[in-house]
Amino acid sequence: MELAKRVKTLTPSSTLAITAKAKELRQAGHDVIGLGAGEPDFNTPTHIIEAATKAMNEGFTKYTPSGGTVELKEAIKNKMKKDQNLDYSHEEIIVTIGAKHALYTLFQVLLNPGEEVIVPAPYWVSYPEQVKLAEGTPIFVGALEENDFKLTPAQLEESITDKTKAVIINSPSNPTGVMYTKDELEALGEICLKHNILIVSDEIYEKLTYSETPHISIAEISQKLKEQTIIINGVSKSHSMTGWRIGYAIGKKEIIKAMTNLASHSTSNPTSMAQVAAEVAYNSPQDEVVVMKEAFKERLMKLYQWITNIPGITCVKPKGAFYLFPNVSEAVKLNGFDNVDDWVTALLEEEKVALVPGSGFGAPDNVRLSYAISLDQLEEAAVRIERFVKNHT
Ligand code: PLP
Fold this sequence. Notes:
Layout: H1 5-8, H2 14-27, E1 33-34, H3 46-57, H4 70-84, E2 93-97, H5 98-110, E3 116-121, H6 126-133, E4 137-142, H7 153-158, E5 164-170, H8 182-195, E6 198-202, H9 223-228, E7 229-234, E8 246-250, H10 253-266, H11 272-283, H12 287-308, E9 323-324, H13 329-334, H14 340-351, E10 353-354, E11 356-357, E12 367-370, H15 375-391
Parallel strand pairs: 1-10, 3-4, 3-5, 5-6, 6-7
Antiparallel strand pairs: 2-8, 7-8, 9-12, 11-12
Bound molecules: pyridoxal-5'-phosphate (PLP).
């Protein structure tokens, strides 16, 4: 049976090959350190789990409204007011099956065939694929390492055509961990307003920031920018709830209504008890969120130091999320490899450290290291990478 054209253009996840290889080595009894994880290593806070259990025991196990329960929408509305000082109505919020599904649904309702979405590179692997699944065209714009991997207003303006529908801004970023400042967002926003381009602001790492500069949503800058922006967020990373699959999109009523209609025919609703869990995550004290953030911060400070001490490796210092995205091109050359992918494969085979090559994120000179594992393991990983580089020099 011939499959649909739309799936033929899908690129398999870049983490897949290396994860499969790491698994194979683990099964053969090797002590593999995996730095590929895209999720916090902490368990979901107990009070959240207990609230979901209670909801289930009380029979909250049935369909809910497609766009999410009134209670969870209210919790999200209050969170937006408290954290961003932004006012939204329930009609401007849709709860989805994780933030990934919010993005997927958004592109489905937004794009006609051939319409373009500007995707600054390095990018999260799912953006281009989701745009393609909606028959849109991802337009990659290489954000330069010299500019801390941030899209400049000039780059944005140059990449706009009469087919441009939206631009994605992901701050803090996966994979680079960099964050845009208020001024930078304002400058990008002005261009989006001038050309009437929707801003898709993926703020899933909002709570994981480690510098003096707090996270700012582009929607906070002005009423006009608020109206031009769809915010994507969720509890996966902030509350260590990746498996619960609760995310959301917030923005213009017409867009949210179309997304809700689509969800009503595709997923019906996000899982009922997971919605209770997310509601409690937002409505209860945020102590665990702060504890997790502090642990990530300590790991970042140490890992950054260890990794940048290795000859041939440089790294833009991340300000958020839980990834380092070092440039290893010098080390790769020094070690006599043709490309980063081969270097990553050899590192896994010889030293049993699994990294994700940057090629899948649109940055072939880099690798992504996740620090969502213990400090001891991170230290051991750094020792092994250093030994690998020295052994090959
Ligand atoms: N956006 C970015 C940048 C991510 O890194 C991820 C998860 O890795 C998501 C969205 C999706 O989050 P969720 O697990 O809530 O679907």
